[in-house]
Design brief:
2 domains, mainly beta
Length: about 200
């Protein structure tokens, strides 16, 4: 069995799983596979022949494929609350004073929103562009962070020894399980460097 997006989706999304029947030697055989949900309150199969499955509620649901009297092991589908937006949860500009002993930026905070509440457990991917472009030793710590209980994730920039950039633009992307950005994503931050 194969689940797109690792079986992760948001409430209201539809999953299109795939499966193939195998014979005793492990070879594929032409067969119609049918699907069923073992947790209909969370996921509901709307077409048993194609496996199209609607995410109804937050939680972990299980799907099972069958061919004749043979049934697969149940496979988990993870349903998350639907994200409405992403935004900065703090300042979007920072200045690093290179002569100071601490060469870390302030936390670059991003919040994932579901309605009026922060959404926990969602990945935020941070990337950066250095200006002027060149060989520098600025790193993101970490590059991917998970939102906490309040829906906030953070990363910081660290400057090691090397050429001093003028600034770094950091983008923080909050995406749905299918890879599309939520409204407000990516969030942009600017970190400037001063001697």
């Amino acid at each position: 069995m194969f689940f797109p997006d690792s079986g992760r989706l948001e409430v209201g999304d539809t999953l299109h799983p795939e499966a193939r029947a195998l014979n005793g030697r492990g070879d594929s055989v032409a067969a119609q596979v049918f699907w069923s949900s073992l947790d209909t309150a969370i996921v509901s199969v709307v077409d048993s022949a194609t496996g199209a499955t609607l995410a109804k509620a937050v939680g972990t649901g299980r799907l099972q494929a069958r061919f004749g009297s043979l049934r697969s092991n149940p496979q988990n589908v993870f349903v998350f609350v639907r994200l409405d937006s992403a935004s900065a949860a703090g300042p979007i500009r920072d200045t690093i004073i290179v002569s100071a002993p601490d060469t870390l930026s302030d936390s670059l905070l991003v919040q994932a929103w579901a309605g009026t509440s922060g959404a926990p457990g969602r990945p935020v991917v941070y990337t950066m562009a250095i200006y002027p472009a060149g060989d520098t030793t600025v790193t993101l710590v970490p590059k991917t962070a998970q939102t906490g209980a309040s829906g906030i994730a953070f990363a910081r920039l660290r400057l090691d020894s090397g050429p001093l950039p003028d600034s770094v633009v950091v983008t923080a992307a909050v995406r749905r399980p299918n890879g599309t950005d939520v409204p407000g994503s990516p969030v942009r931050f600017v970190v400037e460097f001063q001697p």
